[in-house]
Amino acid sequence: MDAKLVKMNKEIYGKACIYWRAGRYNKNPCKFMHAETPSPHTSYPGINAKSKICGKKHHSSSKIISKSKKTLVQKSEDREGTNVVVSKKSSRTICKYWTNNKCLYGEQCINLHSWFQSDELSTITELHQHKKAITGVTLLVGTNKLYSGSTDGTVRIWDCHTGQSLKVINFGKEVNSLISEGLWIFVGLKNAIKAFNTKTNLEYTLDGPKGRILHMIVGNNILFAGVEDGVITAWRESSETKSPFELAGSLIGHTKSVVCLRVSLTVGCNMLYSGSMDQSIKGIISLFGMHDANGKPILFSSCTGNLVSMYELPSFSERGRLFAKKDITSFELVADGGLFLTRDGTGLLRVWKWNELPKVASN
């Protein structure tokens, strides 16, 4: 009976408190350790400290992998004492405690304390005034105005130079997508699209879709809209005075919501690509492409798990990763300065910039 009690106490008191590790400890006293490894002088209830040596010579050595699977502890024991060597492997995973300001390890943490993993990127600023997920962001060509739409029912207009919110337009219902083309701003709502001419300040309603407008794109002077019911609806320019747009038709083929549209930019090849929740493109939330500071083409692939992977084309070698608290749902290229924007499910807009790598001098 005593032997069982000693074994149980040693198992309990030899473990680190999971609440302490998460920064949520509120119990005193606590029967678990508030340290990652026990001190060499730690004594356990019911265990005689002398019994751990027993006058015997130890020549054993062992390797222990911690639960994090990132830290290798090599431990050797002999009569003179114990030598512990800890080596850390670089991690490609963001620390979930750090994202909530609860990590206790600071610089000693084995996971990333950064929103990106790359030496070539840096953040410029963050715009965080939307109350819910951002569903669209676009920079109006020829101006310093940035537009963002959110499921909080608003579209915000930002000053790109100061980062200040200039105007808030309240629609009273979820804004599910947002794009611009020329002087036009298109706002995707439920069962309709609102079209705004920024020069004349005129507003038009494009009816026809059934459900939320989840994604829009313009190609060959045609506005395509991916709809919640799996249909892609298209409008083209019209000479009618009542509305500058007319319904061109619908593309039917997907069985679930259309969440991503792309028009081929290849000369002589007019193709529309669509991704859907019917797993036509499984696991991918959004795709985006641009050139880095050295002119190399980079593909951004946003996947489930709050992760964006960056690949250099055409080799597909990985160039880095971006992280967020919630999935990054879309990207927007800023025309000047190599800047780009990301938006995520928390309502956060983040502005990024490519860093120029130092050039190697040639002999």
UniProtKB/TrEMBL annotation:
<dbReference type="InterPro" id="IPR036855">
    <property type="entry name" value="Znf_CCCH_sf"/>
</dbReference>
<dbReference type="InterPro" id="IPR000571">
    <property type="entry name" value="Znf_CCCH"/>
</dbReference>
<dbReference type="InterPro" id="IPR036322">
    <property type="entry name" value="WD40_repeat_dom_sf"/>
</dbReference>
<feature type="repeat" description="WD">
    <location>
        <begin position="127"/>
        <end position="168"/>
    </location>
</feature>
<keyword id="KW-0863">Zinc-finger</keyword>
<dbReference type="GO" id="GO:0008270">
    <property type="term" value="F:zinc ion binding"/>
</dbReference>
<keyword id="KW-0853">WD repeat</keyword>
<feature type="zinc finger region" description="C3H1-type">
    <location>
        <begin position="89"/>
        <end position="116"/>
    </location>
</feature>
<keyword id="KW-0862">Zinc</keyword>
<dbReference type="InterPro" id="IPR044715">
    <property type="entry name" value="WDR86-like"/>
</dbReference>
<dbReference type="InterPro" id="IPR015943">
    <property type="entry name" value="WD40/YVTN_repeat-like_dom_sf"/>
</dbReference>
<feature type="domain" description="C3H1-type">
    <location>
        <begin position="89"/>
        <end position="116"/>
    </location>
</feature>
<protein>
    <submittedName>
        <fullName>E3 ubiquitin-protein ligase TRAF7</fullName>
    </submittedName>
</protein>
<dbReference type="InterPro" id="IPR001680">
    <property type="entry name" value="WD40_rpt"/>
</dbReference>
<keyword id="KW-0479">Metal-binding</keyword>
<dbReference type="Pfam" id="PF00400">
    <property type="entry name" value="WD40"/>
</dbReference>
